[in-house]
Amino acid sequence: MRNSNHSQRATGFTLIELMVAMGITAIIITVLVSITGIATDTWTRSRDEIRASRQAKVMLDTMARDLESLVVRRGNDFEWLHAKLETGGNLPPVSSGGGNSSEAIGLTFLTAATDRYLGQVGEEFPENAGDVSCASYRLRYQDPIEGGADDRTSTFVLYRLLVNPDEAFVDLLGQPDLDAAFDKYEGNIDDQENFICENVHQFSMAFHVEVTRTADDGSNELRTARIVLGSAAGNGDFRVTGRGIQTTLDAEGFTPQEIQAGRLRAVEISMSVLSDGGIARMNARDGLDQKDYARNAYHYTRMIELPGM
After folding, report:
1. 125, 272, 274: which is closest to 203 by C-alpha?
2. Residue 46: CB partners within 8 Å, gap ≥ 6?
3. Residue 256 belongs to a domain
């Protein structure tokens, strides 16, 4: 019997097959990583937009409630609303390239809002104090919990201080300079209980004033002057007094006399909210470039109709 040795062919992949398989695997991994990156980026941007929208809604809803209850009485020398562009504040520049500066508007006015009022009239306050409160808004750059500046946790924080009717009656109602009278409460405005929202790095206000003009045929026509309070309009203030509207801001096409005799009908609020990631990058880099700012900033506007004055 003859024994024959049969050579057996080794099984396995050739080098070319392995290289082809590795190439296909690399392509698949690259596509998966790309899809995952796009999905993650989309999810992050959606989350940032939702959070920014929520912050804007809180601010605009709160301001709208207060302004819709604005209290103004004519025929006196008292001040009822004072809005100004604050200078020398603690707001840092947002964009390292310029053009996206922070704006701190100080807004103080008398309103019928009583959401934080306990209704406990003490002996030091007259019992006819009424229900007129004073609301004031300020924008600060600090830690929203602990206060003070911290490069890691500081952000733009909007505060609202509501002065109870009892105190407003004694200290603020019937004052010819409401802003100066409010100085007594200024130091308490950034207390934790006055926190409204965060990441609002700027907001501007446009006051819509209804002006009556006499036409050439002798009839009266109503016109609307739009007076903007913001850095683009320059430093100035807007005041509503019992003798009319007074402002150092430009009302293009209208005389100061027309504005003073006009009626404040609406306030248009425009605001910009930065994402949490944008705030972190701004703090780490001492400002955002234009591309980062465009990616991390969200803008909102609302028109608030006011009661007849």
Report:
1. 272
2. none
3. yes
